[in-house]
Write a structure and sequence with these properties.
mainly alpha
Length: 143
Amino acid sequence: MLGIAVKIARLFAHLLWIAVMGVYWALADYGRSFARPAAWLVSSGFFFYWCYTGVLAQLMAKAPDIEKYKQAVRMLALGTVPFVGPLTIDSKVKEFLFCPCRNCPDPLIPPEGYQWLVLGQNLFSITCVFFIGLALRNYFKIK
């Protein structure tokens, strides 16, 4: 029985490695392409805007000015540069996102799924910026 468990663990580790290398190829072309991770980083802004509009849909419906609310969501989604993006979003913008109609009972409690979405966006953008740096290093590497 112990031999079967070891074989299953090795198979799982091998499949996990294949998945990691597949993601690495899709995002960075093994460090050979600068354009691929940059394109993924730019397109992630549109994807996360779509995700944020889904998560914040109930609050968006309560907003008196829908266009202003959509602009705030765009600011949130385009803050994709790691560590800098969240700092560019003012606290008043966050207050407006979570309480668009000034008389909310719990004004600054984000909706369910918001924190996971922000975490996923930050991890994805950090990975893309790392792959951009790796491609630049490989491009300018002295042989």
